[in-house]
Amino acid sequence: MALTQISTGGVKNDAVTAGKIPANAVGSSEIADDAVVQATIADDAVDEARLQISNAGSNGEFLQKQSGNTGGLTWAAVSSYTHPNHSGEVTSTADGAQVIADDVVDEANLKVSNAPTNGQFLSAQSGNTGGLTWATVSTSDATKMPLSGGAFTGAVTSNSTIGDSLGNLRSVPQKSLVNTGYTLTAADAGKHILTDTYVAIPNNVFSAGDVVTIVNNQGGGAISLTKSITNLYWTADGTDAARTLDSRGIATILFVSATAAYISGSRLS
Asked: How distant, in Å, are the alpha carbons of 217, 218, 231 from that of 242?
């Protein structure tokens, strides 16, 4: 039965039924290109059985383009990707999150613009590799006191004690002597000597400006202040001689040179 001479206008609706057309009588050659359009296909009429698929499907699979297969369509399973776990300095978990192990970021891992030498520090430097540069601590900054010394131009405030090699500058350190005759040393400058026996004042030991205080700690006796220094002037009368410090007396010696000093105090004679 040839259908090429029958136009769509010459055939009544439902005049040609599936039972009146032999199987395979209408092939692709009898249907003009673009003759079957979306509007002529009933809703839900094209199902899996009417698609040319090369294999049987399973729940969850999807249609995949596969050239060379029947109809070019194949049921395929979704490929799942499992992220591998990495080991070493940078590790990862199953979800792909990367973690840097403790204590592994060292100098070699940093993007630093230059090679370092011992004692340098990392300094921010825009425009350089990684923004980091090895730099040397400046010793020429005029706003900082050099370690080797210098002069303060303003007031010095401290929240703690200020001291030097002789001790706290806000106190007069004590050297206590009991039943021992003693000869002053240069280390005694800035201290007070608490004693109950004689004290000798040496020559060529102290420098100009050094001060030593002698305290007689006896309750009932005088002590001798012997004179080895060239000149020991008593400020009470200007005489130059050895002195005696009576019980509970105190005397202060101011050195004006290595060979000359002035002495004054209470209960001094």
From this structure: 19, 19, 10
Q: Taking the model in full, what pTM does it have? A: 0.46
CA distance 98 to 96: 6
Residue 249: both structure tokens together: 């007396």
**145-201, pLDDT tens digit by residue?**
777 777 777 787 778 777 777 677 778 889 999 888 999 999 999 999 999 999 999
pLDDT per position as a tens digit, 24-54 = 676 667 777 777 777 777 877 788 877 888 8
Q: From residue 201, give the alpha-carbon distance in Å to each of 105, 178, 195, 208, 259.
A: 65, 18, 14, 15, 10
Query: What is the CATH architecture of 173-268?
Result: Sandwich (2.60)
Q: Rounded to whole angstroms, how far apart are CA atoms 268 and 253? A: 12
Which residue in the block uniquely carries the two structure tokens 């900082």?
Answer: 144
Domain ranges in the chain are 112-142, 173-268
Q: Give strand pairing partners of 265.
A: 251
- 83 Cα distance to chain centroid: 33
Instruction: Rounding to the nearest 10 degrees, give the CA dihedral for residues 23, 24, 25, 31.
Output: 140
Residue 185, token pair as written in the block: 């040393």
